[in-house]
Amino acid sequence: AALRSVKLFTLSPYLSLSLLFLLLLLLLHFFFSLFPHPYFAFFYFLRGKRLAAVSIPSVPLLSDVSRRGPPVEGEEFPMKTPWGAPLVWGDSESSAWRRDEFAHHSIRTSLAILAVGKYNHFLRRLLSTAELHFLLNFYVTYYVLTDRPKELDPLPKLGSNRELKVIPVAEMPGWDTLGLRRMALLASLIGDRIHLEVDYVFCIDVDQEFTNAVGAEILGKLTATLHPVFYGQQRYYYPYEKDLDSMAYIAEGEGDYYYTSEFYGGLCSEMLALTRACSLLILQDQERGVKAQELEESYLNRYLVNRRPTCVLSPEYSWWLPLTSMAKLIRPKNSSPIRPAT
């Protein structure tokens, strides 16, 4: 039987390349549409969603806080949350009023710091910058939880009405362990000791430093800080916990803002309730083999959905990018080798 030849339809090399290029453009468009900024998308894969230690000068400032200089009353920067709590910008008129309100009150405050393993490297820098900028006109106690207390010998020189108390803790290998144990440690310390000695307690990541005055404007019954990456973004981009099995799960339509776990605080009674609740949620997840995507930050945001903060700090109080006059707190450039992406 005669063989029949069948001529297949083929594309020219140029047309094939054009179609591939068009497909690539469509994929890139879809990919970047998922993120508020191309840089965010880049660092999503480079560092993970936490954007750990992003302090590269060439990266533009993110979101609505990209403008230099503090906001003033009447501008587009919100001064209150939807539920009426003050949204604090460090140099605004309302912040100055809040500082004056507390100026003549005798208030005892504190800063709780967890420094374990290689994170002890950042401790002296944080303490030295806190001595320059943190609640200078108030009595402040630094509670340092560390697995290397000898590294604080000799103790840093502190100003008047300032003291440092070292609380030894066991070594915690791995960032995940540290991120999930801190709430329980804080709950124990606040319940056993801190609430007997001070009025307010603030928790801060040890790999931050103070770069500007942080005063009484931060004092509130329960104070939380807006995450610098997600402020001004649509709720869709918030890394709320999506796992239905997790106790940190936040349903669609819940939540107002996304808060950072790097700086928050309040009255001892409120902080005791917060840390106890979050540590319990973490324990319940651990017993079922569940781990929230953003570790303790996921549980903090879950708690703050149900119990909204009475004072909300703008992202300038926990800023990641150094080249802006708005930064109050800033992550160091060299913390990324220590903290892995999550």
Summarize the structure.
By secondary structure, the chain is α/β, with parallel strands linked by helices. It is 31% helix and 15% strand.
Secondary structure: elements and pairs:
Elements lengths: L12 H21 L4 H9 L40 E2 L4 H10 L5 E8 L7 H11 L5 E8 L15 E7 L6 H23 L2 E6 L3 E2 L11 E5 L32 E9 H20 L8 H11 L4 E3 L15 E2 L12
Parallel strand pairs: 1-9, 2-3, 2-5, 3-4, 7-9
Antiparallel strand pairs: 5-8, 6-10, 7-8
Helix pairs in contact: 5-6, 6-7
Q: Features of this protein?
A:
342 residues; alpha/beta; Spore Coat Polysaccharide Biosynthesis Protein SpsA, Chain A; two-stranded antiparallel sheet; 7 helices; hexosyltransferase activity; transmembrane helix; Nucleotide-diphossugar_trans; membrane; metal ion binding
Structural overview:
The chain is an alpha/beta fold. The chain has one domain (78-335): Spore Coat Polysaccharide Biosynthesis Protein SpsA, Chain A. Helix content is 31%, strand content 15%. The protein is built from seven helices and ten strands. It has helices at 13-33, 38-46, 93-102, 123-133, 175-197, 268-287, 296-306; strands at residues 87-88, 108-115, 139-146, 162-168, 200-205, 209-210, 222-226, 259-267, 311-313, 329-330. The strands form two sheets. Strands 1-9-7-8-5-2-3-4 form an eight-stranded mixed sheet, sandwiched between helices. A two-stranded antiparallel ribbon has the order 6-10. Strand 2 (108-115), helix 4 and strand 3 (139-146) form a beta-alpha-beta unit. Helix 5 (175-197) packs antiparallel against helix 6 (268-287) and helix 6 packs across helix 7 (296-306).
